[in-house]
Design goal:
With about 700 residues, the chain is of the alpha+beta class. The protein has 6 domains: about 80 residues, Helix Hairpins; about 240 residues, D-amino Acid Aminotransferase, Chain A, domain 1, CATH 3.30.470; about 90 residues, Nucleic acid-binding proteins (OB fold (Dihydrolipoamide Acetyltransferase, E2P), Beta Barrel); about 70 residues, Orthogonal Bundle (DNA polymerase, domain 1), CATH 1.10.150; about 70 residues, 5' to 3' exonuclease, C-terminal subdomain (DNA polymerase, domain 1); about 70 residues, BRCT domain (Rossmann fold, 3-Layer(aba) Sandwich), CATH 3.40.50. About 35% of the residues lie in helices and about 20% in strands. The strands form 6 sheets. Strands 14, 15, 16, 17, 18, 19 and 20 form a 7-stranded antiparallel β-sheet that branches. It has a 5-stranded mixed β-sheet with strand order 2-13-12-5-11. The chain has a 4-stranded antiparallel β-sheet with strand order 7-6-9-10. The radius of gyration is 31 Å and the shape is globular. The relative contact order is 0.07. Bound molecules: zinc ion. Zinc ion binds next to loops.
Length: about 700
Amino acid sequence: MPGKRCRIPGTMSPAPPSPLSPAARAAALRDAIRHHDERYYTLSAPEISDAEYDALMKELEAIERAHPELVTPDSPTQRVAGQPVEGFPTVTHVSPMLSLDNAYSEDDLRAFDDRVRRGLAAPAVAPDGGEDAAAGLVVPERVGYVAELKIDGLSIALTYEDGRLVRGATRGDGVQGEDVTANVRTIRAIPLALDGAPGGSLEIRGEVYLPRASFDRMNQEREEAGEPLFANPRNAAAGTMRNLDPAQVARRRLGAWIYQLATPMAEAPASHLETLALLERWGLPIEPHRRRCDGIDAVLDFCHEWADKRRSLDFDTDGVVIKVDERALRERLGATSRFPRWAMAFKFPPEQATTKLLRIEVNVGRTGAVTPYAVLEPVFLSGSTISMATLHNAEDLARKDIRPGDYVLVEKGGDVIPKIVMPILGRREPGVEPWTMPSACPACGAPLHRPPDEVVWRCVNTSCPAKLRRGLLHFASRTAMNIEGLGESLVEQLVATGLVRDFADLYGLTASQLEALERMGKKSAANLLAEIEKSRGNDLPRLLFGLGIRHVGERAAQLLARAFGSIDALMAATQEQLQVVPEIGPVVAEAVRSWFAEGSNLELIGRLRAAGVNLTSLAPVDEDAAVKPLSGRTFVITGTLATMTREEAAAAIERLGGRVSGSVSRKTSALVVGAEAGSKLEKAKQLGVETLDEEAFRRLVGL
Ligand SMILES: [Zn+2]
C-alpha cells in the first residue's frame, strides 16, 4: 500500500472462554508454550507468530493471577525461555539477558507510556522547597525515549577483556547461552579489538543478522542442493550461528548491530543515546536510524514511518525497540522477573492480504520431489505484487483445508516467502472441491511415489526431464562444477532437443550442435565449450556435490573427498565405513550408499570417466581423515596364532584402520580365534559376534 499510512490494529481480543477447568487449561497452555519455545529457540523453526505466542502467554498469566495456587515453579511465566542446544560449551551472562515485553498496537504503546510515567511519578514540591503532601504525586507529562529499529536476528553477548574480544555467546535461556566465539570472530562487523575502551571486562550486547542479499543467495544454493529452505533471515542467522564449522559461518557474511553495554561502568554515560555514541567511538557497529523521541507521540511517528520504510533496508526489522533514555530513570523503574519496565518492543503488524487461490500446480525438483504451489490472483503485499505462494506439501494443504477456488489469507513470512495462512471459509463458494495430488509426474508421466515415512511425493523416473533440467543447473552451478553460461534457457533446449540426456553428455557437445541452438552465436558456443572443458579438471568435491546425491551438500562432499580420495574408493565404501567420517551420519551414509547402488548412476560415473572428467581428489589424502578398509571395526584377538604373534596381528588390523580391544562386547565386529581359545570365544558365541579363524583373518588383512 504505497503512500498509505501503516495501520496499527487494536489490542487483540481476549481468548473465548474455555470449556476446560482453569487448572487443565493452564496445564495445556504450559505444554503449548514449552513446545513453541523449543520450536523458536532450540530448533529455530517457529510454528506460530509472535502475536499468537504472546496471546498464549498472556492467557496463562491471567489464569495464574486469578488462581495463584495454580502457579508451578516450572511454569513458563516464571522464567525466560529457551534451552541451549548441545555442541557448544555453556557460558553464564554477567546479568540475565531479559527479553522485552511486546506491543502490537498504538493502545499497547500508550499503555506502556502510562505505566512508565506513573512509575516515575514524584512527590509534588511545595514553593517553600518542602514536599506538599496535599498535592500528591506529579506524573511527568512526557518521558524521553530512544526508538531503535528492532533487528530480526539472533541476540548475542560479546565479552571484551582489556579491549580484546575474548568471547561471543548466544542468548540461550537468558541466563546461560552457548559459547560461539569461533563463529562470532568470523563476523567482520564485530571488531576484535576496541578502540579506546577502558581496561577490564566489558559485556556488550547486540543482534547478529543475515543481510537479505546473503539470505537470498544462501536459499538459492540450498534449493540447488535439494536442502530445505530457511523460512526467513532470522532462522537462517540462528542456524548459521549454531553451525559447528566457522569456515561455513564466515561464508554466510553475517552482519551485526550493537545496542547495549551490559557491564555497569563507574563513568558510564547518563543516557542511552550517549552510551550508543560511546560504543560507536570504540568501533562497534550501531544501527544509524536510532532517534531520541520526546514523548510517546514522537515514538508513534517513528513506528509509522518505519512500518513503510523498512523494506528499503538490507536487513529485516520486525519492529521498533523503545527505551527510556535516561539511565537514572531506568534505575527507578527497574524490572519485573521477565522484562525491564523501561523498555518495550513494538512489533510491526504482520502483513497479510486476501486474494483468490486460482489453482494449485506442482513443481518437480532435482531430487524428483513434487511440491504443490499456489497460483494466486495477483495482490499487492509488503511492497511487491504476489502471484504465487508456497504450499509445503499435500498433507499440510489437507490439514488447513485449502482448496483451489478459495479466498485465502496470504502472509509474507519474515517478509520473504509468501505463504497461505488459511482459507476464508465464510467466502467459500459452492462446488469448491479439495485438491488431490496428481498420480503421475507432470513432466514425464511416470507414477509418483511417497515413501511411507515421508510427506513428500517423488517422481522416481531417473531420466525424468524435469529432474534432469534441475540436475544440470545444479551440476553447472558456481559451487559445483562452475560451468559459466549454462543457464536455464540453454539447459531447457539441450534437454528438449535430446542433445543432453545426462551430465556426461555435456562433455560430448560440439560447436556446431551448440551454434544450431536459439540465441547461441559462434562466440558464446566457443565460450561455453571452453567452460565445459575447464570443468573436466575440477577437484573431486565439486563433482561429488554436483552429482546431486541426496543430503550431500558442499560440506559433506568435501568431507567424503578428503576421507576417500576418489570416486572409486567412495563407491566401494560400506555404510559402516561412510559413517566413520566425522560429521557423516547414518542418513547421509545411506544416501551415498544407495546412490552408488543404482545401476544408472554407476553407468553415469563410467561415462564421466570416459569423458575425461577428474574423479580423484587433487589434495593429498589426509592420513588422519582417511577411511581405510577396517575403519570403524573393532577386533578382539584370543588364543595362540600359529603364524604370527598377537602384536603382529594387532598391527595388521590397525594399519588397515581397525581397532583392537581386549574384551568382547556387542560392539565387537569380529573375534580372531587362535588355538586354545577360552572364555572370550564363549562370550562371542553368546553375543552372536562373528569369529574368524587364522586363515580367514589372514585373508581379511591381506597377509
Ligand atoms: Zn518425472
